[in-house]
Amino acid sequence: MKINKKVNGEKTTIALEGRLDTGTSPELEVVLNAITPTSKDLTLDFAKLEYVSSAGLRVLLTAQKNMNAHNGKMAIVNANDVVREVFDVTGFASFIKIN
What we know:
- By secondary structure, the protein is an alpha/beta fold.
- The chain has helices spanning about 25-35, 55-70, 80-90; strands at about 1-10, 10-20, 40-50, 75, 95-99.
- A five-stranded mixed beta sheet has the order 1-2-3-4-5.
- It is globular.
């Protein structure tokens, strides 16, 4: 998986490319944990994300909880139909903003 991070003040955009699974989710977790205290607006761009597993969902859930704890907001943009379906089926779409 490839992670591209752009920071502009308190706004952070992270674009993911490839698969977010058991092997790659720890890398994303490190990146998200590092930006949570300073970022108040987190956008995750999934335009090039092909797949997300339960391990990836756990990392995203933790990120959402951390953003909530720091009065920040988090949104996922450009998710393809396969990834969006995972969020719908698991119920994650009810508490993570997906545009």
